[in-house]
Amino acid sequence: MKIPSTQISPIPKWLCNIKSITFMYLVLVLQLQASPEDWPVYEDIPHLGLVKVEEAPLPCFGSVQVSLAFNGRAVLTAKMFISDPTISVSAMKVEVLETGRNYVDCNDIGKSRSAKVRDTLTNNSCWAVITVEDKLMPPLLCENDTFQCTTDPFDIRYETLIDVEDNCDDNPTIYYGLNFQKLNCHVMISSIMHVNYIVKDKNGNSATCVKDVVFKKLPLDSIQFPADDTVYCTAPGNSGVPGYNGEPVSAMCDLIASRLDDTIPVCGGMYKINRRWTVMDWCLRISKTQMQEILVSDTGRPVIICPPDSSLVLQGQNCIANYTLPSINATDGCAPSELLYYLIRVDSLYTARPGETVSLTEGTHTLDYIAFDPCGNADTCSRKIDVQDKSAPSLVCPSKLVISLGANGEVKVDISYLEKFIFYTDNCGVTDIFIRRVTNRCARPQDTIYRRDVTFCCLDLGSTEMLMVKVVDQWGNSNLCMIPMEIQNKLVTLVNCPADRNLQCDQDTSVNFTGKPKVTNVCTNLSFVITHSDSGTLDSCRAGIIKRKFFIQYSDGTIDSSCLQTINVVNTVSVLQIEWPRDTLIAGCTSNDPNDLGQEPLVLNFTCRRIAFEYRDSIPVLPVDSCPRILRIWRSIPTCGLSEYRDTQTILLLDLNPPILKGPKDTFHCVEDTFCHPFINLPDLEISGCNTIVTVTNNFTNGGVNCSGIYPLGRHTVIFTVVDGCGHVVKDTVLIEIVDKISPSVSCRRLLRNIQANDSAKVTARDLVATFSDNCTPSGLLVFTFDPANLNDTCRFISCTMHKQFPDSLWPILVYVKDLSFNKASCIARVDVDDPSGFCNNLVGNKIGITGLIRSTTKEPHVNVPVNEMNEHKEAKTNYNGLFEMSGYKESDSIEIIPIYNEDWLSGVSTLDIVRIQKHILGVDPFTSPFEWLAADVNKDGRVSSQDISLVRKLILGTVTEVKGNTSYRFIPENYTFKDLEFPLNDDVEEVIQTDYLTTDFKANFTSIKVGDVSGALGNVNTSTLTRNRYYSIGTMDAILSDDVKGISTFSAEQDFTVEGYQLRILFDPDLGYPERLVEYSNSEQGSNMSEEQYSVVEDKLVISYTNQFPKRIHKGDKLFSIVWKSAKECKVSNIIRETAFNDNEVYASAYSKYPLIIHINDQQALSSTPEIENFKLAPNPFTEDCTISFISNMEVDSYLEVISSNGKIVLSKWVSILNGSNSIRIAKSELQGQGIYHYKYIIGNYIKKGKIVLTK
Q1: Distance, CA of 536 to CA of 1089 (rounded, Å)
Q2: Which residues contact 4 (CB under 8 A, 6 or more apart)?
Q3: What is the architecture of the domain spanning 1173-1255?
Q4: Bridge partner residues of 894 (DSSP)
Q5: Residue 44: its pLDDT value, please?
């Protein structure tokens, strides 16, 4: 049987070296199932037969070059190495001897490598040297790229724009060349960068490619402008530029960015930049503009260099050291050092400037050195100054003192006794006085040590003892003196005085009855004599008190007068005989007191008793035929135990003077809407005088003391007539004026008029009015005129000269309508003038005329403006339509027309203009018109700043009447075009119209701009509508002002409204008092002093021009401001304020609306001129943080609070405005100088409250 050939793979280990085998039982071998590792080794196989081995070597190339593939590897096969192509290589394996792998990779390049080829069947092998090579070039992916043109083409890393993958080099070297091509105004592309790449790997293989990088243009609308920014002057930073996605625009995009800055100084190193950015596409010739506001802020405080602590020594007898404050040095990162402002706060009480001399008391003082920059940033440091007292007190003692022992044989001498005889002074005051004895005779060793008192005894009699006196000031400085003390015994006996006695008026009061002193000797046997003296008298009832003083004179010459006795004497009772006062007649205004009349009851039977009398007067009775009389009822008071006696006396009051009248204040009332006959509520007539029985009538209501009622329009005189009981007649007059301030309603029409034979067209004012009405004046009584100052000016003519100048124009004519209250309204009519008959074509002459219109920014005609023609020196004035005419010029003349008007500075100017300028400067509401800029540039310095606000306020307050360097009106040619609409003041505007060569009639129109009237520059405020619809009012309570108290009038809102500012004018009587200061309440309930820049007091006029930085909502009852009065005479507020009804009293709400502001003085019951304080409390006390004074006051006044430290320094003093009602005043810990005891004094008029407060830890 023939066994077929079979290949076993893999070959078991035991067959590795067997070339051929003859199997006897081959099937047995083929059935072996195991992996090669598990196969048995040769020794384990039984020898089944003979094995024959044949040797046959393998032929290999000596060296082989291997190239790596794209994956960086090359698998080695036997075919690469066997040189004999006839040999089968299927059973051969190749192995790299150095690595043991059957492949090579990039790590084998350039290294020595050899390969072994082995026949797995015969185990024959051969070797070859391998050279590993990389011959593949790097593969490249070059695709075109696109960038925005804002990218710098030379900043791009072009090596990152291609994809390179090499089989052996992870980072091949990339070389490229650039060829930049800038396109000229291409629609989509601004430029192209042509890039030529060469890429080499580390094995020297290289590849090339070419690509284009395209830079795409940006549309202008995609440009991003920088936002508003705040930078700091110490680190200005970058406020940004126009760009796209953070990249600035450049010429590479065919765009160019430019900027124009307007720098507005704010303070010191702080300023604001209004930057106008413009980006232009130079290919399309279009641009885009946007504003950027940059605030260069100064928030850093100065750095102050603090002087060192120091000490001073008091000189001479002064307790105050004069100290010159040193100069301060500081640096600031924004403002130059010369703009820094320095203050030194001394003990938190007051401030001074460096170089000033201040007075410092002894002790330690704190100086706070403060440096301010112009923006209000401040730095503070504190240093101590120790004022020392090294001067000893001065002490002068008497040369000798004589003292007497007491009844117990001793006498005590203390400090209070010695202070009567010694003299001591100290520059700052003595704090302690001590005394001591030099010797110890009385067994009191403590008396030889300094103390407050010492004792002398009988052992000291007859000797002179030395007493040492020591005075010490608070710094421990002391002085000594010695006083010789002579001790005497002036009281050598004990005296027992007789007891006090009570006696009847008929009893004996001598010493025999009342008693004498009993004298007992103490140490000696002295004889004595007793005498006495009496003081005091008995009254008319023989009653009274006798003071009896005894004198005991001893044999040694001494006298004792210390014994006193009181003897009380009482009277007895008896019947009286009385002479009563007779009836009498007196003047009504004189005193009827019995002492003044000399008429009192007289007791006739005068004994040891006395009677007192009282009386009661009846209400004055008015008989039919005489003046009033009083019935006085006398009654005796039984003071001595008597019965009561009565009598009636008649006193006739002869009144020689009439009553004194004080009627209601003259009243001014503005009607509202159609209520033209309002009800006026007035207070009663006040009557004073001696005669209180009067009859009162008035001629308006036929009533009595009150004339309230319905009053028609006009000025009414109300006469009060008062007749008293004695027939005196007196009158008082009150003026009541009812005024209609509401203007008529009117509209004008368009009218056609033809030129007539007189070469003109005639129109009347009435012809030009279409509709008209008024709230109070009947239509038939309204007056139509062209000039509100001249009611007869009702006719106008349009001449041929005017018609030829403007042949196709509609003539605007201003028509006024006035009512019976002289309120006016106006409208502009249009007159269409035609010349169908050709009258104007018949004019002869070759003269040329000049005409022109001068109108306001709201197209209102400006009347009576002088217009000068400078070359021919001619002058004309504008008429009611703002038109002026000049004639007599000929062809080829040159002209120069200049209007000039410098009157009526206050016309149209109000606090509302300050609000408008303030909002522009703050950037809240910038100006939108060049006219606003020109009106706001009050000082004509080419910019709008706080100086212009200050000048407008001064004009309103009356502190200036004009502004130098400018005129009240400016006149701009009507057709002038401003070049810089963002900052029109940069234009050099010539306020003149001129031509060098006339050829025909010439027209010169101007626009007039009222300087200061910013709110009216665009006609933003419709005052007539607002006045018709609404007004607001504020009120204050009437009160009595006293000459010794600073009274307060607080003005509060009577409605809810929003206020940005207000303007008031108040007339007062300077003979009665004047405003000392004003308090405003916009920032706190307690209020703060109003800046003197916002109000003025000139003669008898108070003017207020107040503005808030932002709108503030005011509710009914909220306080606006207070007037602190310095009263010269006692009077009421309603007496001192004379007039408040002025048309320019206004309040300004949001959106530049203004409303009339009415002032009311409201009546208050039980007026008082003297402050009264109730429920005065101070709690807590002691306190750790603050304590509060609380009380109730009966009126509004200024009060004064003063707090004094324990060493006598005033640490707190301030004026405090208090209200009618509950009040509280806070004393804070920070206002005092540390823990301790303080004394306070609070003064309100004549009311003074003093006490102590204690500040603890």
Answers
A1: 63
A2: none
A3: Sandwich (2.60)
A4: none
A5: 47
Whether 220-297 shares its CATH topology with 745-839 is answered yes
Q: Using alpha carbons only, how large is the chain's radius of gyration in Å?
A: 59
What's the pLDDT tens digit per position in 1048-1090? 899 999 888 889 999 999 999 988 888 989 999 988 888 888 9
Element (H, E) at 957: helix 946-957
The residues that bridge with 63 in the sheet, in sequence order, are: 129
Give Cβ neighbours of residue 56 (< 8 Å, ≥ 6 apart): 122, 124
Span 661-740: which CATH code? 2.60.40.10
DSSP secondary structure letter of residue 321 = E
- Angle of helix 911-922 relative to helix 946-957, nearest 10 degrees? 170
Q: CB neighbours of 930 closer than 8 A, spacing ≥ 6? A: 978, 981, 984, 987
Tell me the one-letter amino acid at 656: L
- 3-state SS record for 660-672: EEECCCCEEEECE
Residue 914, classed as helix, strand or coil, is helix
User: Comparing C-alpha atoms, which of 464, 463, 445, 452 is closest to residue 417?
Assistant: 452
CATH of segment(s) 539-654: 2.60.40
Tokens of 70: 């794209």
CB atoms inside a 10 Å sphere around CB 148? 16
Structure tokens at 505: 């008026």
This prediction has a pTM of: 0.38
Q: Please, which residues have CB within 8 angstroms of residue 157's CB and are 6 or more apart in sequence?
A: none
Q: Is 880 exposed, middle or buried (0-12, 13-18, 19+ CB in 10 A)?
A: buried
Q: What residue spans of 495-581 are helical by DSSP H?
A: 511-514
Q: Which two tokens stand for residue 356?
A: 């000033």
Report pLDDT for 625.
55
| E strands, 514-628, in order | 518-521, 528-535, 544-554, 559-570, 578-579, 584-587, 602-603, 612-617
Residue type, 1122: S
**Span 303-388: which CATH code?**
2.60.40
The conformational region for residue 254 under phi > 0 = left, psi -120 to 50 = alpha, else beta, is: left
CB 482 within 8 A of CB 397: yes
Contact by Cβ (8 Å): 488, 411: no
The letter for the amino acid at 231 is V
Residue range 92-113, pLDDT digits in tens: 999 999 998 999 999 999 888 9
Sequence-ordered list of residues with C-beta below 8 angstroms from that of 201, at least 6 positions apart, any chain: 134, 137, 138, 166, 168, 169, 172, 173
Enter the tokens of residue 1112. Answer: 């503030």
- Measured between alpha carbons, how far is 469 from 396 in angstroms, rounded to an integer? 10
Parse the chain into domains and list their residue ranges: 64-133, 145-216, 220-297, 303-388, 422-488, 539-654, 661-740, 745-839, 1173-1255
Instruction: Report residue 250: phi and psi, to 5°.
Output: -150, 175
Tell me the C-alpha distance between 135 and 67, whole Å.
7
What kind and span of H or E run contains 931? helix 930-936
Task: Please tell me the number of Cα atoms within 13 Å of 627 on its side-chain side.
Answer: 21
Per-state percent for the chain, helix, strand, coil, to nearest 5: 10, 45, 45
By the 8 A CB rule, do 611 and 640 touch? yes
d(CA 570, CA 507): 10
**How many other C-beta atoms can be found within 10 angstroms of the C-beta atom of residue 276?**
16
* 404-463 pLDDT tens trace: 887 777 889 999 888 888 888 888 888 899 999 999 888 899 999 999 999 998 888 878
Q: What is the DSSP letter of 1094?
A: G
* Single-letter amino acid, residue 617: D
Residue 589: φ, ψ to 5°: -95, 5
Alpha-carbon span 4 to 18, nearest angstrom: 18
Q: Which fold has domain 220-297?
A: Immunoglobulin-like (2.60.40)
Given the candidates 2.60.120, 2.60.40, 1.10.3470, 1.10.730, the CATH classification of the domain at 745-839 is 2.60.40
